Amino acid sequence: MTVPQVLTIAGSDCDGSAGAQADLLTFFHQQTYGLSIMTSCVAGNSVGIQDSTDLPHDFIVNEFESIFSDFHVAGAKTGMLSSPDVIEVTRYYLERYQVKNFVLDPVIMTKHGAQLIGDKAVSAIIRKLIPISLCITPNFYEAQVLSGMTIKSEQDYYSAALTIQSEGAKNVLIKGSHDDVDDKGQITDYLLSEDGQLKQYKKALRPTTHINGTGDTLSACIVAEIAKGSPVATAVQTAEDYLLNAVTWDLNIGSKFGPINHWGINIS
Protein backbone atom coordinates (compact mmCIF):
# COMPACT_ATOMS: atom_id res chain seq x y z
CA MET A 1 0.00 0.00 0.00
CA THR A 2 1.44 3.35 -1.07
CA VAL A 3 0.25 6.64 0.39
CA PRO A 4 1.62 10.17 -0.07
CA GLN A 5 4.17 11.14 2.58
CA VAL A 6 3.55 14.65 3.90
CA LEU A 7 5.83 16.67 6.18
CA THR A 8 5.06 19.25 8.84
CA ILE A 9 7.84 21.55 10.05
CA ALA A 10 6.37 23.02 13.20
CA GLY A 11 6.29 23.29 16.97
CA SER A 12 5.02 20.61 19.33
CA ASP A 13 1.96 21.39 21.48
CA CYS A 14 1.87 18.90 24.32
CA ASP A 15 -1.92 19.07 24.73
CA GLY A 16 -2.38 17.80 21.17
CA SER A 17 -4.63 20.65 20.08
CA ALA A 18 -2.38 22.57 17.71
CA GLY A 19 1.05 22.61 16.09
CA ALA A 20 2.52 19.43 14.68
CA GLN A 21 0.03 17.30 16.59
CA ALA A 22 -2.92 18.92 14.81
CA ASP A 23 -1.10 18.58 11.50
CA LEU A 24 -0.45 14.88 12.01
CA LEU A 25 -4.06 14.21 13.00
CA THR A 26 -5.18 15.96 9.82
CA PHE A 27 -2.70 14.06 7.63
CA PHE A 28 -4.03 10.80 9.07
CA HIS A 29 -7.66 11.68 8.42
CA GLN A 30 -6.82 12.75 4.86
CA GLN A 31 -5.24 9.34 4.25
CA THR A 32 -1.67 10.52 3.95
CA TYR A 33 1.38 9.47 5.97
CA GLY A 34 2.56 12.18 8.33
CA LEU A 35 6.20 13.07 8.93
CA SER A 36 7.32 15.79 11.34
CA ILE A 37 10.28 18.01 12.07
CA MET A 38 9.91 19.68 15.46
CA THR A 39 11.27 23.21 15.75
CA SER A 40 10.11 24.06 19.28
CA CYS A 41 8.14 22.58 22.17
CA VAL A 42 5.31 24.17 24.11
CA ALA A 43 4.15 23.21 27.61
CA GLY A 44 0.52 24.23 27.57
CA ASN A 45 -3.09 23.22 27.90
CA SER A 46 -6.56 24.59 27.20
CA VAL A 47 -6.05 27.36 29.78
CA GLY A 48 -2.80 28.77 28.38
CA ILE A 49 0.91 28.32 27.73
CA GLN A 50 3.09 27.64 30.75
CA ASP A 51 6.48 27.28 29.09
CA SER A 52 8.16 26.95 25.70
CA THR A 53 11.60 26.24 24.29
CA ASP A 54 13.23 26.20 20.87
CA LEU A 55 15.05 23.02 19.88
CA PRO A 56 18.80 23.25 19.18
CA HIS A 57 19.68 24.20 15.61
CA ASP A 58 21.93 21.16 15.08
CA PHE A 59 19.13 18.85 16.17
CA ILE A 60 16.71 20.45 13.70
CA VAL A 61 19.28 19.97 10.92
CA ASN A 62 19.60 16.30 11.90
CA GLU A 63 15.82 15.93 11.70
CA PHE A 64 15.86 17.27 8.14
CA GLU A 65 18.71 14.91 7.22
CA SER A 66 16.89 11.93 8.72
CA ILE A 67 13.65 12.64 6.88
CA PHE A 68 15.02 13.50 3.46
CA SER A 69 17.61 10.70 3.40
CA ASP A 70 14.87 8.07 3.69
CA PHE A 71 11.42 9.37 2.68
CA HIS A 72 9.85 10.77 -0.47
CA VAL A 73 8.19 14.00 0.66
CA ALA A 74 5.20 14.63 -1.62
CA GLY A 75 4.25 17.81 0.20
CA ALA A 76 5.37 19.95 3.12
CA LYS A 77 3.96 22.69 5.32
CA THR A 78 5.30 24.91 8.04
CA GLY A 79 3.95 26.06 11.35
CA MET A 80 5.84 27.88 14.10
CA LEU A 81 9.31 28.93 12.89
CA SER A 82 10.57 31.37 15.48
CA SER A 83 14.05 32.28 14.23
CA PRO A 84 15.72 33.32 10.98
CA ASP A 85 18.12 30.37 11.30
CA VAL A 86 15.30 27.83 11.34
CA ILE A 87 13.64 29.59 8.42
CA GLU A 88 16.91 29.52 6.46
CA VAL A 89 17.49 25.80 7.02
CA THR A 90 13.87 25.08 6.10
CA ARG A 91 14.29 26.83 2.77
CA TYR A 92 17.60 25.05 2.17
CA TYR A 93 16.14 21.57 2.50
CA LEU A 94 12.91 22.30 0.65
CA GLU A 95 14.95 23.60 -2.29
CA ARG A 96 17.65 20.95 -2.10
CA TYR A 97 15.08 18.16 -2.31
CA GLN A 98 12.83 20.05 -4.75
CA VAL A 99 9.64 19.99 -2.66
CA LYS A 100 7.21 21.73 -5.01
CA ASN A 101 4.05 21.21 -2.96
CA PHE A 102 4.92 23.60 -0.15
CA VAL A 103 2.15 25.26 1.88
CA LEU A 104 3.33 28.13 4.06
CA ASP A 105 1.27 28.73 7.19
CA PRO A 106 2.95 31.92 8.40
CA VAL A 107 2.53 31.70 12.16
CA ILE A 108 3.18 35.37 12.84
CA MET A 109 0.05 36.69 14.57
CA THR A 110 -2.76 35.08 16.55
CA LYS A 111 -6.32 35.26 15.23
CA HIS A 112 -6.78 38.07 17.79
CA GLY A 113 -3.86 40.17 16.52
CA ALA A 114 -1.04 39.40 18.99
CA GLN A 115 2.43 39.03 17.43
CA LEU A 116 4.04 35.63 18.06
CA ILE A 117 7.53 35.95 16.57
CA GLY A 118 10.13 38.70 16.24
CA ASP A 119 10.46 41.13 13.37
CA LYS A 120 13.64 39.45 12.05
CA ALA A 121 11.80 36.14 11.73
CA VAL A 122 8.91 37.87 9.97
CA SER A 123 11.37 39.42 7.51
CA ALA A 124 12.99 36.04 6.92
CA ILE A 125 9.62 34.45 6.14
CA ILE A 126 8.93 37.15 3.56
CA ARG A 127 12.37 36.84 1.94
CA LYS A 128 12.99 33.10 2.21
CA LEU A 129 9.72 31.18 2.31
CA ILE A 130 7.07 33.18 0.49
CA PRO A 131 9.00 32.99 -2.82
CA ILE A 132 9.02 29.15 -2.79
CA SER A 133 5.46 28.58 -1.58
CA LEU A 134 2.79 27.00 -3.73
CA CYS A 135 0.18 28.35 -1.32
CA ILE A 136 0.32 30.66 1.69
CA THR A 137 -2.47 30.80 4.31
CA PRO A 138 -2.20 33.98 6.41
CA ASN A 139 -4.96 34.99 8.77
CA PHE A 140 -6.44 38.50 8.62
CA TYR A 141 -3.73 40.08 10.79
CA GLU A 142 -0.86 38.18 9.16
CA ALA A 143 -2.05 39.29 5.73
CA GLN A 144 -1.82 42.93 6.87
CA VAL A 145 1.73 42.40 8.13
CA LEU A 146 2.86 40.60 4.97
CA SER A 147 1.22 43.08 2.60
CA GLY A 148 1.99 46.22 4.62
CA MET A 149 -1.58 47.46 4.27
CA THR A 150 -4.77 47.75 6.31
CA ILE A 151 -7.66 45.52 5.24
CA LYS A 152 -11.11 47.07 5.56
CA SER A 153 -13.03 45.83 2.52
CA GLU A 154 -13.32 43.00 0.01
CA GLN A 155 -11.19 45.03 -2.39
CA ASP A 156 -8.54 45.31 0.33
CA TYR A 157 -8.42 41.51 0.65
CA TYR A 158 -7.79 41.33 -3.09
CA SER A 159 -5.13 44.03 -2.99
CA ALA A 160 -3.36 42.42 -0.02
CA ALA A 161 -3.41 39.03 -1.75
CA LEU A 162 -1.96 40.60 -4.90
CA THR A 163 0.86 42.16 -2.88
CA ILE A 164 1.69 38.85 -1.17
CA GLN A 165 1.52 37.08 -4.53
CA SER A 166 3.99 39.61 -5.92
CA GLU A 167 6.41 38.49 -3.18
CA GLY A 168 6.49 35.04 -4.81
CA ALA A 169 3.59 32.96 -3.48
CA LYS A 170 1.69 31.29 -6.32
CA ASN A 171 -1.65 31.05 -4.46
CA VAL A 172 -2.74 33.22 -1.52
CA LEU A 173 -5.52 32.20 0.88
CA ILE A 174 -6.38 35.00 3.33
CA LYS A 175 -8.56 33.85 6.21
CA GLY A 176 -11.28 36.35 7.04
CA SER A 177 -11.46 38.26 10.30
CA HIS A 178 -13.74 36.81 12.97
CA ASP A 179 -14.92 40.37 13.53
CA ASP A 180 -16.06 40.68 9.92
CA VAL A 181 -19.33 38.73 9.93
CA ASP A 182 -21.97 39.31 7.24
CA ASP A 183 -25.74 39.52 7.77
CA LYS A 184 -26.00 35.73 7.45
CA GLY A 185 -23.53 35.15 10.30
CA GLN A 186 -20.79 34.07 7.90
CA ILE A 187 -17.12 34.93 7.51
CA THR A 188 -15.33 34.82 4.18
CA ASP A 189 -11.92 33.45 3.23
CA TYR A 190 -10.38 34.72 -0.03
CA LEU A 191 -8.21 32.67 -2.40
CA LEU A 192 -6.23 34.46 -5.09
CA SER A 193 -5.17 31.71 -7.48
CA GLU A 194 -2.07 31.57 -9.62
CA ASP A 195 -4.22 32.39 -12.66
CA GLY A 196 -5.41 35.64 -11.07
CA GLN A 197 -8.90 34.45 -10.12
CA LEU A 198 -10.31 35.48 -6.73
CA LYS A 199 -12.54 32.87 -5.09
CA GLN A 200 -14.55 33.26 -1.90
CA TYR A 201 -15.21 30.55 0.69
CA LYS A 202 -18.04 31.43 3.05
CA LYS A 203 -18.79 29.58 6.28
CA ALA A 204 -20.84 30.15 9.39
CA LEU A 205 -18.94 31.49 12.39
CA ARG A 206 -19.49 28.90 15.10
CA PRO A 207 -20.08 30.07 18.71
CA THR A 208 -17.55 27.72 20.32
CA THR A 209 -14.46 27.92 22.50
CA HIS A 210 -13.07 24.74 20.91
CA ILE A 211 -10.98 26.46 18.26
CA ASN A 212 -7.39 25.44 19.02
CA GLY A 213 -5.62 24.22 15.90
CA THR A 214 -7.92 25.70 13.26
CA GLY A 215 -5.16 27.33 11.18
CA ASP A 216 -2.86 24.33 11.48
CA THR A 217 -5.62 21.97 10.43
CA LEU A 218 -6.66 24.07 7.43
CA SER A 219 -3.15 24.31 5.99
CA ALA A 220 -2.41 20.65 6.78
CA CYS A 221 -5.52 19.52 4.95
CA ILE A 222 -4.62 21.69 1.96
CA VAL A 223 -1.12 20.22 1.58
CA ALA A 224 -2.39 16.67 2.11
CA GLU A 225 -4.95 17.08 -0.66
CA ILE A 226 -2.40 18.68 -2.99
CA ALA A 227 0.01 15.80 -2.32
CA LYS A 228 -2.78 13.42 -3.37
CA GLY A 229 -3.10 15.25 -6.67
CA SER A 230 -5.85 17.83 -6.12
CA PRO A 231 -5.57 21.31 -7.68
CA VAL A 232 -5.05 24.08 -5.12
CA ALA A 233 -8.61 25.48 -5.34
CA THR A 234 -10.09 21.99 -4.87
CA ALA A 235 -7.74 21.30 -1.96
CA VAL A 236 -8.80 24.56 -0.30
CA GLN A 237 -12.50 23.68 -0.69
CA THR A 238 -11.91 20.26 0.88
CA ALA A 239 -10.00 21.89 3.74
CA GLU A 240 -12.72 24.50 4.31
CA ASP A 241 -15.37 21.76 4.50
CA TYR A 242 -13.21 19.66 6.80
CA LEU A 243 -12.56 22.57 9.16
CA LEU A 244 -16.22 23.57 9.29
CA ASN A 245 -17.16 20.08 10.47
CA ALA A 246 -14.28 20.06 12.93
CA VAL A 247 -15.59 23.18 14.71
CA THR A 248 -19.27 22.19 14.45
CA TRP A 249 -19.09 19.10 16.66
CA ASP A 250 -17.38 20.00 19.96
CA LEU A 251 -15.12 17.59 21.82
CA ASN A 252 -15.46 17.65 25.60
CA ILE A 253 -11.72 18.01 26.10
CA GLY A 254 -10.02 20.73 28.13
CA SER A 255 -11.53 23.18 30.58
CA LYS A 256 -11.31 26.38 28.51
CA PHE A 257 -10.13 26.72 24.89
CA GLY A 258 -10.30 23.14 23.72
CA PRO A 259 -9.24 21.42 20.50
CA ILE A 260 -11.32 21.16 17.37
CA ASN A 261 -12.84 17.80 16.46
CA HIS A 262 -10.85 16.04 13.73
CA TRP A 263 -13.53 13.33 13.67
CA GLY A 264 -16.19 15.89 12.78
CA ILE A 265 -16.29 14.96 9.09
CA ASN A 266 -17.38 11.45 10.06
CA ILE A 267 -20.27 12.76 12.19
CA SER A 268 -21.72 14.91 9.44
UniProtKB/TrEMBL annotation:
Catalytic activity, reaction form: 4-amino-2-methyl-5-(phosphooxymethyl)pyrimidine + ATP = 4-amino-2-methyl-5-(diphosphooxymethyl)pyrimidine + ADP; 4-amino-5-hydroxymethyl-2-methylpyrimidine + ATP = 4-amino-2-methyl-5-(phosphooxymethyl)pyrimidine + ADP + H(+)
Domain of life assignment: Bacteria
GO biological process per UniProt: thiamine biosynthetic process
EC number of this enzyme: 2.7.1.49, 2.7.4.7
CDD domains: HMPP_kinase
Membrane spanning stretches: none
GO cellular component: cytosol
Similarity annotation: Belongs to the ThiD family.
Record-linked PANTHER family: HYDROXYMETHYLPYRIMIDINE_PHOSPHOMETHYLPYRIMIDINE KINASE THI20-RELATED, PHOSPHOMETHYLPYRIMIDINE KINASE
This protein's name: Hydroxymethylpyrimidine/phosphomethylpyrimidine kinase
Upper taxonomic lineage: Bacteria, Bacillati, Bacillota, Bacilli, Lactobacillales
